[in-house]
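Go through this chain for my students:
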Amino acid sequence: MEHSGDGCVFCEVASGTAEVSLVWQDDGLMVVMDSHPVNPGHTLVVVRRHGSSLEDLDDQLGARLWCTARRVARGLRRCGLRCDAVNMLLEDVEGSHAHMHVFPRFADDDFVIDADCEPRERRLLDREAWLLREAMSSIGPRLPIRG
């Protein structure tokens, strides 16, 4: 496994030099408790390789990242925390480690994602959809349009 020498906290976790509450790990991923949690049970599913943005992940590791985060979410619903819901957020910071936050949610928590977004014109949304569809088609098989 490649490690960064720049004090990357995820590299320190992966190498065992950082104190962490480890849930699970394998050769490609690690699941740890967030040390600054939004709520009790806030968990990180982290790609072990430094510099691994979402763009760098092969389909197999990308699928494992999602499936592991989903398994963590299911575990949060079954463990003693008894959360009411789960939110997930993908962090895709170039030069770091792709990772997913898994946030347990409780009826009385005060965690909010607050954005005051303006409605976008349909012609702009349609143009952006076309651009994205073309880019996605250059990555793999052309996607059918349904609906």
